[in-house]
Write a structure and sequence with these properties.
With 319 residues, the protein is mainly alpha-helical. It has one domain. The protein has 13 helices and no strands. The longest helix is centred in the last third of the chain and has 36 residues. It is globular. It starts with 7 loop residues before the first helix and ends with a helix. The mean pLDDT is 85.
């Protein structure tokens, strides 16, 4: 079983880097998807990131060996590969339909499902604080979708299909998150990410169309490169954060990701209105987005908050 190193400040910094990079990513991807299909975009992101990691590991003598994995470890690699690949493809398919902010808010269910799965797998207790957080989160989603709630619940429109695809993307991401955390007991995080990226890229190669890159404008080409580098740095930081900090703390920090996306969309729409459109959300919807973030953080930090309150009450009573 993987045990965090305890370097919480380093883990926090890495989690914040991940949150910011994931927050700006959908804004860039939305522009690239105007020309390229989701499979090809995914292939570029994984192939470029995996190749860069392979070159680095080869130069530093850090290429991983599969022998220490054993059968269980190889199963974890397979779960990580299919989990991450499914997440990428389903998320991009949903992003083609939804706005960046909506897609990023829905994908926020990923860290929550990761935490809930960890509770069942690692026998952690689901506290009262986490239950409150889950209620706040669900209320937040209800408020966020207030303008289209009837559509979501009564019809299978394109918008509903987009939301369902992103929800499914967050569910399969859980398999990746749990599996790669256990792989850190055998490999270092760059080795884990290199293997996962290269296997994912290999799997989608038959369906990728790399020549679509020639159809991109210069701006879209730079954005595609930025997406590839974002993949490398963000997931590397995420894997390293899990190595140094508890999954609950990392999940709580990642809760701010949708707010980063909304801020990025608003800034980009103000600076480049011809390319990026502002989110079509009312004030109640933005309030719901904030509640989703608060609920996510409460779910992640519930046990620590309750333990802290009990410790403080014990000190007061003792004093």
């Amino acid at each position: 079983m993987h045990v965090s190193s305890g370097r919480w400040l380093y883990g926090l910094s890495l989690a914040l880097v991940t949150a910011v990079l994931w927050g700006v990513l959908p804004v860039k991807l939305k522009q690239v998807l105007l020309v390229m299909d989701p499979v090809t975009v995914t292939w570029f992101r994984l192939a470029v990131s995996g190749s860069m990691l392979f070159v680095w590991q080869a130069l530093t003598g850090g290429l991983p060996s599969f022998k220490p994995l054993g059968r269980k470890g190889k199963v974890l690699v397979a779960l990580s590969v299919f989990g991450l690949l499914g997440n990428y493809l389903l998320y991009l398919a949903g992003l083609k339909i939804l706005s960046p902010g909506t897609a990023q808010l829905v994908i926020q269910m990923g860290p929550i499902l990761l935490l809930v799965s960890s509770i069942f797998l690692f026998k952690e207790r689901f506290s009262v604080g986490q239950a409150i957080g889950l209620i706040v989160l669900l209320l937040g989603f209800g408020l966020f979708f207030n303008q289209r709630l009837a559509e979501l619940l009564t019809s299978l429109s394109d918008y509903t299909a987009g939301v369902l695809m992103v929800l499914l993307a967050s569910a399969v991401w859980t398999f990746y998150g749990l599996s790669q955390k256990q792989l850190l007991t055998v490999w270092k995080s760059p080795q884990v990410m290199m293997v996962i990226y290269l296997f994912c890229a290999l799997l989608v190669t038959p369906w990728a169309h790399p020549l679509q890159a020639l159809e991109l404008s210069p701006l879209q080409g730079w954005l595609l490169l930025a997406c590839c580098l974002n993949t490398l740095v963000a997931y590397g930081a995420f894997a390293e954060a899990l190595a140094h900090w508890e999954a609950s703390r990392v999940s709580a920090t990642l809760a701010i990701t949708p707010l980063v996306t909304f801020a990025s969309v608003a800034t980009a729409a103000w600076l480049w209105p011809d390319y990026v459109h502002a989110e079509d959300i009312n004030g109640l919807g933005y309030g719901g987005a904030v509640l989703v973030v608060v609920g996510s953080a409460l779910v992640a930090l519930g046990p620590s908050l309750i333990a802290g309150l009990r410790a403080r009450r014990a000190r007061l009573m003792a004093g």
